[in-house]
Specification:
single chain; about 130 residues
Length: about 130
């Protein structure tokens, strides 16, 4: 349980840094910083979700997509949120290609909806 509590705190801190940068005036530097913050926030959120499923449901997951699919089955995500979470996973995997201007811009534009999804998931996990 201590690990779950610590991971919840890590997730809240990561989400705070992502929200903070999304409120900044757009520049290429802000875009790139936001993508970097999205990467580490995504990592802690999927791992938090995975650990939560293991502790509360006895379900073991080994990948982000598998975790989000199991989160849907456990009622943590609805169908639309699950689709968005899977798209978010694809975009997280695409961040290694942010040297392509079009990829970086497309990912950056989706960050507010990804931030809301991750925030809602963290809040639901922390509440329960």
């Amino acid at each position: 349980m201590e690990k779950l509590t610590a991971m919840k705190a890590d997730a809240r801190r990561a989400l705070t840094t992502l929200a903070e940068i999304l409120n900044e005036t757009y520049s290429v530097i802000v875009r790139d910083a936001a993508i970097q913050r999205f990467e580490y926030t995504f990592e802690v959120i999927w791992k938090l979700t995975s650990l939560h499923l293991k502790v509360t449901e006895g379900v073991v997951t080994n990948s982000p997509k598998g975790t989000f699919r199991k989160a849907f089955q456990a009622g943590l995500l609805d169908e639309n949120e699950t689709i968005l979470a899977l798209e978010m996973t694809d975009d997280r995997n695409r961040t290694v290609h942010t040297y392509h201007e079009a990829v970086a811009t497309a990912i950056f534009e989706r960050l507010p909806e990804f931030n809301r999804l991750m925030h809602n998931l963290e809040a639901l996990i922390s509440k329960g």
